[in-house]
Each structure stands twice: as C-alpha cells, then as structure tokens.
Sequence to fold (871 residues):
Amino acid sequence: MKIPRRELLGLTGGAAVGVMFTPVPWKLVHDSALWSQSWPGVPVPMRGATSVKYTTCPLCPAACGVRATCVGGQPVQLAGVPSHPQSRGMLCTAGLVGHHLPFHAERLRAPFRRVRDGADVRRIPATSDEAMSAWKQVIGSLKPGEHVAILDQRPGRAQSFLYRRMLNEVPQGIYLTMSDQGATLESVRQCVAPSAGPFGLDLENTGTLLSFGAPVVDGWGTPGRVLALRKQGRLRIVQVEPIRSRTADRADLWVPITPGSEVAFTLSIAHVLIAEKLTPESQSPALEPLRKMAAQFSPEIARTLTGIAPDLTVAVAKELVANGTAVAIGGGDPGGGPLGAQEEAAIAGLNLLLGNVGRPGGIVERRETPVPAEWAKAPMAPSMDLSKVPDNSIRALITDPLPSGNAIPRRLLEKKLAQHATVIRFSPFVPAYGFDGEFVIPTAAYPNALDEIATPFDSPRAMFAVAAPIQPADASSLDPLELLGAGKTEDAVKARAQAIFESGRGELFNYASGETAPLKSLKNGEEFWTQLTAGACWRDSESTAAPHANVRMPEGFLNASQGRLQRTPEYPLALLPSGWRAAVGGNKLSPLLSKVYEESGLRDSPSVATISPQSAEAFHLTEGCRAMIETACGGAQVKVRVDSSVMPGVVQVAVGPERAGLLETCAVGADCTWRISAARMVKL
Amino acid sequence: MNQVKHGGIVSFCAGCAIALAGGWLVFPRAIYTAEKQPFAFSHAAHTGEKGGMKCEDCHSIGAEGRFSGIPKLEQCSGCHTQPVKGSAAEKEFIANYVTPNREIPWQVYSRQPENVYFSHVSHVKVAKLECARCHGEHGKSSSLEPFQRNRVSGYSKTIADRHMEMGDCERCHAEKGLKNSCLDCHK
Fold:
C-alpha cells in the first residue's frame, strides 16, 4: 500500500504534536538526568562499615586537625577535631569537602609536557625520566649568573631540608621560598634578633589585633584560633583595608584606607603614639629611625595620602594602648600577594614601638622543630626569597607540590626565568597556567598524600603533624624527593619524627581521645610515629626565652613612602586582586563549591568585579553589566557588581578559583608585589 | 483534491491519537522492566498481630548510628534454620538460601542515587518519622510486588510512586521549617 507523502507528513506531524501532550518527552528528560548520575567516571562511594580516621589538612599552612568519617574505608565526610590546640575544632569550607579532590576533573593521572604548536599550546605525554634528564642537562650547561632552583612554598618541612641538601651538591643551586603571611613576624625578627628562632604570636593573650588587610577571620594563620578567641570576646580586631572585606565586616573597627598608603598610616599612628607618649618605648634610642620617619607623618599630613581622618588615626592609636597588648600584622592577601618590604618594615616598627615583642600577648620567639643531627650538620644550599633572585637568571625550576594557599602570578615566575628555561612542576592537578616546554608530573592528592605539616607561622610554639593518607594514593602519583634521588618523603618525615621524639620536648595531642600526653610518656619513636599517622600533633613545651632587649631598627630599614598607587588619567582606578586561600595558587576546589561562588555569592566569584556606586557612575557602569578591566598588562572580561563595600576609585576582583587571566592583568612590581595596579573599566 | 486535503487532517489526527495512546497507555508501562524478587516474602507474616515483630527488629539502627538496611541472611537464619510455619515460600527460602548459606539477592525498592546520603537515624530517631511516612504500608504487605526498574535511569519505580525523590525531601523539609542545604544530603 502506498501512503501519500502528504498523509505521511500529517501522520508524523500529528504524532509529534500528540507526543508533546504525553509524559514521554518529560519522563525521558527526567530519567536521562538520573541516568547521567551513573556515568562511568562518576565516583561511587564504597559500601561497607562506617569508620573514623584522623589526619591533618595540608591545603594551607593552618594545620587544622581533620576527622574523616569513612564508609568502606573511603572518606565521605570531613570535620574539624574538637579541642585541637591550633584549629579549635574548625575547618574551612574547602577543607570540609577536601575528600572530593582525588576525583577532581583536573586531577593529573600521567606526566605531560606542554609544547607550543603555532599559536596553541598542546599537551603531549611525557615521562618523569625525560623531565629528570632535562633537569640534569641544564645543570651540566649552566653559565655564570644562572641558577637551577627548587621553589618550596611550605618551607621548614623535612622535605625542605632534603631539597636544600640536594641543591647544595648542585653547582649554582638555590632553594627558593616566597613571602608568606608571616612576613611581619620575620621583619620584627630582623630588628630584634636576626639569629634567633622563628617568631610566633601569643594571640590568646592579645588585646587588640591591628590588621593591615590580612584576612584574619578566614584566611590568615589558623582562622579557627582567631574565631575561637572572638567567640570568647577576648580579641578586638581593627581592620585597615580599602574594601569592607569579610574580616573588615566582622572587625570591631574598619578603617578604609587609600590603597597602597599603609606605610603613611602606620607612621601616622606611630606619630601619635610618640607625640602623646602613649608607650614606654616612644623615647627608646633604638627606635630613632622610626621616630625620624614618623615625625614627617602627622595625622593631618598623612591624610592626604591615606584618606583617613586625623581623629580616626588618633582613635586607632589610643585603641592600641587601651586594651592590653596590641599587635600589628601585615602579611598581605592570598590573592593580592605580599604587602611589600617597606610596609612590613613600618608595621614591624609599630610593633617595636608598642613594646609587644617577647611579652605575653605579643610577638614571641619559639624554638625550631628538632631535626635529625645528620641534617643539622649537613651543608645546605642557600635559602632565598623569590623576589630577591635576579631577573631572568633561573635556567631550570622545580616546584614542590604542596601549596601555600597564596597566588603565584605567571608574570612573576616569567620575570625570574631565563629564556627557554626548563620548568618541572609537581602537582596533583593540571596547573591553571603553564610555560612552553614545561613538564608536569602527578603527585598524590589530599587526603591520600603523606606530608609533613610544619608549624603554622602564627603559632607561639613549634608544632609537628603528619597529613596521613586516608586511602592509598593511586599508582600514577610520584614522590618528588624520590625522583630527585633525595630519598623518600615518608622516610624523611619519619626521620624527623624520630628526632622530635629523641628531643623529649613537648607533648602529643591525640585527635581521637582529645587528650594530651607528655612526649616522654611514649615508649619509643615507633609509637610516636604510629600515633602521629593515626591522628595526633606534637606541640613543643612553652618557650622560656626572655624578652629581647637588643631592639635595633637599622638605618635604611624603613623609608618614607608616598604611596604605592600611581593612578594616571588613562588608568584612574586602583585594581585590587584578592583571593581565598583555598582557591588560589596550586589549590583546586571541589566542584561542589561552585555553588558558594556562583549561586550563593558567599564568596566573590572570579568573574565579578566590585566597584563603588560613585565609580560606577563615573564609568557608566550598571549592576550586572559586562565590562573589560584593562591595565597596562592586559585586560579581562568581568561582570560588574556595584557595592559601597569598596572605596570610590577602587575595583576589587577575586583571582580564584581558576580564571588565571584576572591575575595576569595585575602588574608585578620591581619588589615582586602585585597587589595594586592602575586600571580602567570599559563597558561592553 | 478535497479528498487529499481531508486525508491530511485525518492522518494528522490519527498520528496525534496514536501518540497520545502510546504515550499515556503504553509508555508508562514499557519504560519499566518487571523483575521478580528472589522469593515470596511476607512482611505481614512477620509483623502485626500474626508475627508480633516491629520494623526495627530486622531493620535496625546500630549503636554507631548506622542503619542496617535489609537484614543479612545471618539474621533470618536465627529463626529459620528449620521451617517455622512450613509454607511453600519458607521451604523455598530455606532450601535456596539458608541451607547453602547464600545471601539473598534482594532488589531494593528504595535504593537512592549514589550521590545522596540519607540518614535513617536523623529521620527515625531525631525527627521521629514513622517508617511508613516514606515506605508506605510496605511493612504490612503479604507479598512482594515485582521490582520495576526504569529502563533509562536504572532506578526503581517505587521511588517515584512512594514520593522518595529529591523534590519530595525538599517539600517535607520545607513543611517542617527546615532549610535545605545541598550538603545536608549530598556529600
């Protein structure tokens, strides 16, 4: 039977229309969505008995204790460890979902190499042997003034010692670190006792914390410590920042400041403290360089740079002496980078003037964590801050996989690398940006990686913990130390644990029981190691070091500043990058947290630029419109948010997660800071 | 010509009618496969006045708060090493599973997707919900209905029929004034 074409079309059309009035399409869409949950590659939690394991989070230097509930051995829920001496039971949002990281879409499973192919950069499979032979080849062909280097963003670990020992054997080998959020403490140490041990903070007895932009409640030191003190009403916070950030919002006082004028404001506070003789140290001869500088910055004069009313400056100065010991800290922002050497020197000077060094509630010296005698005696390669390395001098660079939680702009590394340098990056994930010819080698991802957790910079006592794997790492993960022929990470961390045990110092806090026992009560080093890997942290006994009497502020340590920001008619705005420690640098976030950024708006999304209503009007920008942020270094497209939480003339952008492009628009200065760039905005 | 014109409308209507009939009458059945459970288990024989058992006697919540789910064979064997009532189903059960010590391959009507963690202890012990609130009168059934598996999603038809989908959870939480956070259920 022949069906006419018209009738066939009619039948088909009728069926198509009719089917739309049945459950068929809607049910199929619904069921397909459910089916997609069972795609191959979607992680399926194991079934089995519920158990609890403990570890320490390595995602940033905060050293938070972690309680992992596991089903069939696989972690399904992470939480803080109550009464942990450092993190006080808290865990940040990224830490709470850290167990998703081994399943991250960008988890690296095999080594690869980036190769330029015309305008594109392709990834080609590579081997770790190829990477190591490239490293050795560079070592054999170094010219004078050229270096090979290892960048370790978490110095002070067992691995750090072995890197330094290995680099010492390499001609022109240098061990690199980066300025971290404890830069103020290091600046104070330079003035007080350069040869002393590291400095920490006795925050539990601090009255007022004056923070110059450090995100002290959610991304500085160990936030759980600050939050616990705030909850008890024991710590006042004065936040000096151009943006009403999360910390500024929760502070007792927010002081909006013109970006880049921190030195002037610090000196104007010092001016008030000295002029009104508010501190006993105000007449100390050791602080003569500070007095000289402060004399030039009366609150009235400083106002032209800082935009801060003289009355407010006086109020801040009086707050610092009215509430017990006060401490001033800098350290910078995880996304915005370090404050800068001059700012840190000025803040260090303010601390010396407040007389808080070595006092209860102030900046205190702590002892170093013990190391095996063999390491202590071994010659080590020099340690150098990345900013101090001559530009274009690094011929080969290896980066350690453990992130500091601070951003590293590509521009900064490029500045230090020689042309056609060999870059080898160890990372659990595909890095957000790359270099032509670089090797990327997979390492284990938290919580399946073993690592040492060194003392957080703000801790008043030395600490030691182990990020013990909750599950075995996958077979593709490699150990950087082993590849470099410097030993094995586990052996190195275990050797350090043995050295700590042999010192007999301090106590061990057990995560499961919540009890603390003297180290001497343990039978042997093996028992110490077993407890550490099952969930425990060692804390040194309290330091009995006397307050340092030899305060000395060297001439030239501090220079007067006219401010960092150089606005021009072409670029009239100040672009301030900022970031959350868990979402910048080498860190990746669980995809589940996209809701925190993109839907809930609890964190600034990297695609959003926040600008004040006044600036929005000046640039003809409206809420929600698309715009280009342009600096002398490039541009990036953003969505505009108009909000009075930022000062007029300022545009704030988050530089993580991902979206490395936004960080690339920030200019890296001669002192390797990138926290302020002159910018403009153009509506699209 | 008129015949051809009318023929187009008729065929359109016919197509429409076929689609409507297929969509409403055939498709809802065809989308599911029906799989028989391993043997005819009667909840009614165990619970109520006949058996005197409660739901939690077999589907217990352990001391650590973990829900046992469907009982293991070991638990059934505690009473059924020998026939108790001597029904055909019981004899079949003993012969096929208890004697060879083989776990029963039950098809679970209420199995949720792998990305969901449902806490029985929170709902039963804390919120004091009755089992029947989600599972219906399953505990009083005298036979097990066939397990109807969705051919596309792979999940049981019971999840939709008994209101155990995400929207149902959200609705119930809203009724009780609870806020819904993704992390409450999705880990």
